[in-house]
Amino acid sequence: MRKAFSGIVSLSVRSFRTVATIAAAAVFVVGVSTSSRAAANDAAIVIDANTGKTLYSSNANARRYPASLTKMMTLYLTFDALSKGKIAKSTQVSFSANAAAEPPTKLGVRKGGSITVETAILSMVTKSANDSSTALAELLGGSEANFARMMTAKARSLGMTNTVFRNAHGLPNPGQFTTARDMATLGIALREHFPQYYGYFSERSFMYGRQRINGHNRLLGRIKGVDGIKTGYTRASGFNLVSSVSVDGRKLVAVVMGGKSGASRDNEMARLINAYLPKASRRGGGALVARNDNDPASQAIAKVVLPRHDAPTPDARPGTVDAIVAAAAPLPTQAPKPKLPVIAQAPEPSEIPFAQAYAGPEPSQQIDPVNTASLPSGWVVQVASSPSKSEAEAALDKTAAQARAVLASASGYTVPFRKGGVTYFRARFGGFETQTAALRACSALKKQRIECFAVQQ
Q: Signal peptide position in this chain (predicted)?
């Protein structure tokens, strides 16, 4: 009996050891597998933003999923439209059913609702709002699919040769990919081409109604000199981050992709910044990313007239089959022209620059001295004219902020014209269907000491 019991115990011990060995091996295999998957997604690059020199690179040219880093290009095209006067910060962005139905993270605007362009920008740089991204895409591109083509066209013009965009937000799509190097190029382009809007990337929170919405970029305020840019995550991409740093004349743009967690990604970015910022140059070598305004994306934005607040938008999200076909279809070499009116450059007018006191004609004489037959029909309210485009845009922003209620349904834009060999820019608000509506708006503006006059175009 004692021998039998001893044999049973011996067998049990051997069995336990065998099971334990197998379990340990299984844990090791799973650990290796998980580590391999993480390593397969890992990519990083650090570039001196003064000279363009690559200071560090790891899998920087390997294809990766961008996740919400995609919104960097959506914002680039938004800033491009702002700088060209095609939209203003106060322009209303309508939310279609397609935009409102985007999954979180989102702002939560319902179908038919709207927010300003500036609110959309803030919601994207802080909350990484997918619904705002789609709404902006539909505003600027006419449709989400066409905007994705514009994004890819712009990427090519910036030298991002290994990037294809299929949507404006970065939600999973097998046909959408990029590289760490391309994302660094985009980060540098945003800083160089739009310094007037780049400050948005430093925002850590913003007020939406009575709600304070906090951002996802934990390095802002944690690492000295970090002033943006964007975080991103999907299960397929891992945790991504593009960071811009400026300290004592030294500038870096760094990219980390495929992090296993937000914390590990942030720690790796902090390590790279601390290691390579001292090696960066304090001397700039000029623009690192050429800006080509003749690419199809710029042409498409330049030709789109601001839609009114009731512009038609898609009523339903694309079906699964359509999405698959779109993902597989090759992108055209040039974005198709939106089926919207074209802004024609007007002949030389006789207008007073914005720098002087601007007073429009009396209501009984509301006649534009310029032949505007080639412009879209409708009535607009002009508030300024300046040889400086930035001054004209500033006039739009100031007027929109001062008279939000009056211009709630209007869209601001600038129109260039030449006089005496000098290019001037009209600052106008469009979207008034009748002369009475435009005159009423102008009258309300004058009550707020804003000079203006109504024009039919």
A: 1-38
Q: What pLDDT was estimated at residue 301? A: 64
pLDDT at 413: 79
- Model confidence over 35-69: pLDDT tens digits? 334 445 799 999 999 999 999 999 999 999 999 99
Q: Which two tokens stand for residue 117?
A: 């362009």
One DSSP character per residue, 359-400 reads: -PPPGGG---SS--TTSPSSEEEEEEEES-HHHHHHHHHHHH
Residue 283: the pLDDT is 85
How confident is the model at residue 387, as a pLDDT? 87
Q: How far is the C-alpha of 255 from the C-alpha of 244, rounded, in Å?
A: 9
330's CB contacts (< 8 A; 6+ apart) are none
Tell me, what's the pLDDT at 20?
A: 46
- The amino acid at 354: F
Q: Are residues 279 and 64 in contact, defined by beta-carbon separation less than 8 angstroms?
A: no
DSSP code, position 233:
E
Q: Which candidate in 123, 128, 244, 386 is catalytic? A: 128
Q: Look-up: residue for tokens 């508030």?
A: 383
Q: Which listed CATH number (2.40.50.140, 3.30.70.1070, 3.30.830.10, 3.30.420.10) goes with 363-456?
A: 3.30.70.1070
Residue 71: strand, helix, or coil: helix
Q: What is the pLDDT of residue 142?
A: 93
**Which is nearest to 301 in space by CA: 344, 337, 346?**
337
- Quick one: tokens of 289? 């990313």
**Predicted pLDDT at 177:** 95
Tokens (6 digits) for 315: 């009523």
Rounded Cα distance, 58 and 388, in Å: 44
43-303: CATH architecture: 3-Layer(aba) Sandwich (3.40)
Gyration radius (Cα) of the chain, Å: 27
Q: Output the pLDDT for position 457.
A: 67
Helix (H) and strand (E) counts in the chain: 12, 13
Asked if residues 63 and 174 have their Cβ atoms less than 8 Å apart, the reply is: no
Kindly state the tokens that stand for 372. 């505007």
pLDDT of residue 408: 75
Write out the two tokens for 272.
Answer: 């790279």
In DSSP notation, 139-199 reads HHHSSHHHHHHHHHHHHHHTT-TT-B-S-SS----TT-BB-HHHHHHHHHHHHHH-TTTGG
List of the chain residues with pLDDT < 50: 1-5, 8-39, 305-377
